[in-house]
Specification:
It is a single chain. This protein is an alpha+beta fold. The protein is about 30% helix and about 30% strand. The protein is built from nine helices and 19 strands. The strands form three sheets. A twelve-stranded antiparallel β-barrel has the order 1-2-3-4-5-6-7-8-9-10-11-12. Strands 15-14-17-18 form a four-stranded antiparallel sheet, with no helix packed on it. A hairpin with a 6-residue loop joins strand 17 and strand 18. Helix 8 packs antiparallel against helix 9. It is rod-shaped, with a radius of gyration of 47 Å.
């Protein structure tokens, strides 16, 4: 009860102020002077004051306000242009804005008994000196409004009465602009505006209609909004010499004291949403569509940033998507005063090439664990060729290349140690393992040199020629030819060493026995044969 008495007193004081003051009337639904399709619900008190900076016969100061009440998309307002002129304004939301369609409203302003309605109760305002002057009574209009992303909102509309003027430039917004005859009583004209929003509640507004062009700066919260504007900025451009120059500074304030219809900050919940790539965990840019009842809005989500949404309590359908990713949808309950924070991870849309790349990456991981480094490298290189953004394959290839480098370096060191110890066959076996991992001309040449060196060792010394001993009458028995050539013996010995170092001892024994059968004096074959038989 006390609250009702308190606000009733405020209403009476404001209304009394309106009756005794001449002013520019403002509305909660306007940008500056141009109406939008946003018909707000709630009770609003609108106050304004203006000052003209040009012209000697223009009234310098003006101030006052209006009262409005909106419910269920319908709004009614009472304006007092002077102590003699009261006007009723009506507006109705025909279509609420959605992701696909703009909002649409219709309205009827200046419902009064006066044909002409002057904001300052004077005819010295420049717009009213243009001839002919359309009557402001029953100014019918239609407006459409659409948000273009997070930071831009545009409004366009058609209207008669106060929206039609015949100034040097504004006349081109009227439908009879290129007609020799003027039709002020029933002519319609175009109007429009754009508002640039910022995340901190400040917005920049530009608008025009058949009467004037305005620009302003606004700050707004859920309960109030204040606007500082320069009205009639077209007067800053060259005008005819006999016209009064009268741009005006205007300061207006629209307040919702009861908090009904608006969304007070204490009666909303907060959603903070970031979009992530599921495979890499990196942030990506995308879009969010928020649906509640018949209302649907879309928001851009910049990369590496969270989108903050202030929503009234309720259950919202949240759809998150990004180009090249699978869409995700969830119903999210929003509670007053509660903050919810999400990181939505999206799966990439898998093409056949990407799927094959992922499969090759998994197979390469198995090869790597089992020591098949060369096979793993081939698979990973193919995986990257199929899908260049396969980060797992890139990381795996780095690991495989490092393991190969370390393995090759270790084998080379072992081979050099064998060679220094005189074990040429053992060195060859190790260099052949290097060749399997690193097939280079230098490695092949080095192995061939070692084989030549080993063959030279296996070659028997030439027989001496007798100089003093006379041959006996009995002819010596012919020398027994070896069953294998020296090169074949060297090859068998090398194969035996490879089998030995690979752990294939039975196969190594078979090769060493073949060597000793062909060359019983082969010391290295005897040594490794004995070592192989110990296993």
């Amino acid at each position: 009860m006390k609250k009702i008495i308190k606000y009733s007193g405020v209403i009476i004081i404001v209304f009394s102020f309106l009756v005794v003051t001449d002013f520019y009337a403002q509305s909660c639904r306007n940008y500056i002077d141009v109406p939008t399709a946003d018909v707000s619900n709630g009770f609003f008190i609108n106050l304004s004051g203006s000052y003209a900076v040009g012209g000697q016969t223009v009234e310098k100061f003006g101030g006052g306000g209006s009262i409005e009440y909106g419910v269920a998309g319908f709004l009614a307002g009472l304006k007092v242009y002077s102590t003699k002129t009261f006007c009723l304004d009506l507006a109705y939301t025909v279509l609420e804005e959605s992701a696909s369609f703009p909002g649409l409203s219709i309205g009827l302003e200046n419902i009064t008994n006066n044909k002409y309605v002057a904001p300052l109760d004077t005819v010295d305002v420049v717009d009213f000196l243009y001839a002919p002057r359309p009557p402001e009574i029953a100014s019918l209009y239609m407006a459409v409004t659409k948000e273009l992303g997070d930071y831009v909102e545009m409004t366009a509309g058609l209207g008669r009465g106060r929206f039609v003027g015949y100034g040097p430039r504004s006349q081109y917004l009227n439908f009879d602009a290129f007609s020799d005859e003027k039709h002020p009583d029933f002519m319609f004209g175009m109007f429009g505006g754009v508002k640039f929003n910022t995340p901190i509640g400040v917005s920049f507004i530009f608008e025009t209609d058949g009467r004037d062009a305005n620009a302003g700066l606004r700050y707004e919260t859920s309960r109030w909004k204040g606007t500082l504007s320069v009205d009639k900025i077209e007067h800053l451009i060259a005008q005819p010499e006999d016209m009064i120059q009268s741009p005006r500074f205007n300061l207006s304030l629209s307040v919702n004291p009861l908090g009904r219809g608006a969304a007070p900050e204490t009666n909303v919940g907060t959603l903070k949403i970031a979009i992530m790539d599921k495979s890499s965990g990196n942030p990506i840019q995308g879009k969010i569509i928020v649906s509640h009842g018949n209302i649907e809005r879309s928001y851009d989500v910049p990369i590496a940033k969270k989108k903050v949404l202030m929503l009234r309590p309720g259950v919202y359908k949240i759809t998150v998507f990004s180009a090249g990713y699978k869409m995700k949808t969830a119903n999210v309950p929003v509670k007053a005063g509660k903050d919810l924070e999400f990181e939505v991870s999206l799966d990439k849309v898998i093409s056949p090439a990407i799927k094959q790349s992922m499969d090759l990456t998994k197979a390469a991981a198995t090869d790597y664990k089992n020591g098949r480094l060369k096979e793993a490298k081939v698979k990973l290189e193919e995986a990257i060729a199929l899908y260049p953004n396969n980060n797992k394959a890139k990381q795996g290839l780095q690991m495989v290349n490092k393991a190969l480098t370390d393995n090759i370096s270790s084998l080379k060191n072992q081979a050099r140690s064998r060679e220094a110890a005189g074990d040429i066959g053992g060195a060859i076996a190790l260099w052949e393992q290097v060749l399997a991992l690193e097939n280079t001309t230098a490695t092949r040449t080095y192995i061939q040199n070692l084989r030549d060196k080993l063959a030279a060792r296996s070659r028997p010394a030439p027989a001496r020629t007798a100089t003093t001993t006379r041959p006996t009458t009995t002819a010596p028995a012919p020398a027994k030819k070896p069953s294998l050539t020296k090169q074949q013996i060297a090859d068998l010995y090398t194969k035996g060493l490879s089998a030995y170092f690979d752990g294939n001892y039975k196969e190594a024994i078979r090769y060493f026995e073949q060597v000793l059968k062909a060359d019983p004096s082969h010391a290295q074959a005897k040594r490794y044969l004995g070592e192989a038989k110990k296993h």
